[in-house]
Amino acid sequence: MTLREHAADEDDEVTPDDPAAPGGMAPGEFREWGRRFVDRVSDYLERIDDYPVMAGVKPGEVRDALDPEAPVEGEPVEAVLRDFESVILPGVTHWNHPSFFGYFAVSGSGPGILGELLAAALNVNAMVWKGAPAATELEEVTLGWLRDFVGLPPGFVGTINDTASTSTFVALAAARERGLPEAREGGLAGAPPGTVYTSREAHSSVLKAVHAIGLGREGVRAIATGPGRAMDPGALAEAVDRDAASGFRPLAVAATIGTTSTTAVDPVEAVAEIARSRGLWLHVDAAYAGPAAALPNCDTISRAGSARIRSSSTRTSGSSRRSTARLSMCAIPRS
């Protein structure tokens, strides 16, 4: 029975399997299925190399295997597991496969999966401190660990976002708020055109973020690259000064430490100095190679110096207050 058919049947009532059990699953049943699901996940991780790296389905194949109408009543757990095996797994590209070399490494580790289980059970919503004191303070402590891990000074604080792209969006939205204060009341229509500067090799999330915060395609300046496909500081300085003299409002620079496409590393020290001298927000996308800063015996590839800047961040954190930023990153040796 579909939702539409159910709505037309006034006498039909759907009740949970066990009103006393959250979600209609009794504790004993949850324990039993929980063991089976954990065993299935364990088998998957143990036999991951038996799967093809890339999904073998054609576009629309997974969608066509599912009912287009939402069900009124829940299916037995056996049916859910069968769908997982027959419909979902064939349509998965296995990022944690040992032969997967695209994009970046898997984040679904064994400890991470177990942590997800505990987090899902608690159903935490950390909107305010009172709603989730443990989550709020755990985030602060964890970010402190991360800051120390990569050698950043105590002035760097921030938040954990759901994705790297969201972090870029949040950072550039904050840069817009700082650089275009007149837009807070009258909107962007009455404000000078704002501009954001980034390398031609930067992640697409920078361009998307600039679009999303209302600056449009004309609000992005793709700076030319030099040796190693890194941003050219001279070209950056020229673009900023040219825009400032032409009535634009330069807002931010997005530098990258390890681009997704070519692993290029921008000269963060030089970029930071340009941002500092011209009052721009500096956002550093270090999602790819930033953690390499924690490695011993590696060459330093960039230093932001002791510049006074508004914000410098990895794609998981940022600070909107003034801080002394010293960003030291190390390259992972490549063969």
Overview of this protein structure:
This protein is of the alpha/beta class. It has eleven helices and eight strands. A four-stranded parallel sheet has the order 2-1-3-4, sandwiched between helices. Strands 5-8 form a two-stranded antiparallel ribbon. A two-stranded antiparallel ribbon has the order 6-7. The C terminus is likely disordered.
What is the topological layout?
Blueprint: H1 3-8, H2 27-46, H3 61-64, H4 77-88, H5 110-122, H6 133-149, H7 164-179, H8 183-186, E1 194-199, H9 204-212, E2 220-223, H10 233-245, E3 249-256, H11 268-277, E4 281-285, E5 300-303, E6 307-309, E7 323-325, E8 328-330
Parallel strand pairs: 1-2, 1-3, 3-4
Antiparallel strand pairs: 5-8, 6-7
What structural category characterises the helix and strand content? alpha/beta
Q: Separation of termini? A: 59 Å
- Residue runs with pLDDT of under 50 for 5 or more positions: 10-20, 299-335
| Biggest sheet architecture | 4 strands, parallel
Summarize the structure.
By secondary structure, the protein is of the alpha/beta class.
Question: Key terms for this structure?
Answer:
335 residues; 11% strand; alpha/beta; two-stranded antiparallel sheet; four-stranded parallel β-sheet; disordered C terminus; 37% helix; elongated
